[in-house]
Amino acid sequence: MEDGYTRIANELFELVMAAPFTLREMRVVLAVIRFTYGWNRKQARVTGGILAELTGMPATKASQTLAALVAKNVIHRHGGSRAAVSLNKRADEWQVAQTSRQTPPPRQAKTPESYQTGDPDPNRYDSYQNGKSQSYQNGNASKDMKDKPPLPSVEGEGQPTEKPAKPPARKSQPTLDLTALPSSVSREAIEGFIDHRRALKKPLTQRALVLNVNEAIRAAERIPDLTPDQALDETVLAGWQGVKADWLERRLAQQQRQGGAMNAAERLHAQNQEAIRRAVEARASAGPVDDLLDQGGHW
């Protein structure tokens, strides 16, 4: 869980599991899901080399399988042959062969005569001698077999309809006290993190809120040029449920390696904003405005 996870709707993932894909097709479909939903992206450019690394298949076979899935409308390609791809959420548009369930032939109940002759129907020998064949589909089946409902030939056929379950009653959201939290974290950042947890359907308790705010402060003390507000905002952007100093340290280091860190102008702007925030806090605690001005009248 420290390296993240792939968020995908349960219904869509169940459709993928139930689809009659081949082993190669299933590997490629899971690889596309990993590179799109695993990175919180709607689409991504997946090359044959990437597929080969994830699935263990040769790059040529992986590319051919991806092209076959595009032809079957399982994977959408947004552009040319090297464009980004995504999983088609409309499973009814997938052009994959559906396997039908075979209905086994009914078993006939044994009669007392069958235990002596070893055959379930001793009259069958007479019918062969008279040139007649007896059909088991002409109403000669046992009463027990007639009373049993037929087995479904396709999925969902012949099954009793179930009444839809009533939706569970919504639990009231707990009331959180923001006044007891440390002043080093702004109310705006805390409320943004609370809204993020509600969007994940994981509302915070008062204790959980205090633990996450304290962890954001600890992360700011460990990571240079990181404020507690930025720690909370970075957690929301990453889609995490909680704040972890170790996760933030690895994430920011990875962003710097990939060139995703702030440039000099953006870092200077962030430092100015932090300086203004500290000055406003100092003004509120100091009282008169003249205390924050130097002898030249500068701020």
How would you sum up this structure, described in words?
The structure is a single chain. The chain is mostly helical. Helix content is 46%, strand content 3%. It has a two-stranded antiparallel sheet. Strand 1 (75-78) and strand 2 form a beta hairpin. Helix 2 (23-36) packs across helix 4 (59-71), helix 9 packs across helix 10 and helix 9 crosses helix 11. The chain starts with 9 loop residues before the first helix and ends in a 13-residue tail after the last helix. The model is unreliable at 133-137 (pLDDT under 50).
Topology, please?
Blueprint: H1 10-18, H2 23-36, H3 48-55, H4 59-71, E1 75-78, E2 84-87, H5 112-117, H6 123-129, H7 143-147, H8 187-199, H9 206-222, H10 228-238, H11 245-257, H12 264-286
Helix pairs in contact: 2-4, 3-4, 8-10, 9-10, 9-11
> How would you write the strand order of the largest sheet?
1-2
Which segments are poorly predicted (pLDDT under 50) over 5 or more consecutive residues? 133-137
Q: β content, as a range?
A: under 5%
Computed over alpha carbons, the radius of gyration is 33 Å
What's the gist of this structure?
By secondary structure, the protein is mostly helical.
List keywords for this structure.
single chain, 299 residues, mainly alpha, two-stranded antiparallel ribbon, 2 strands, 46% helix, 3% strand
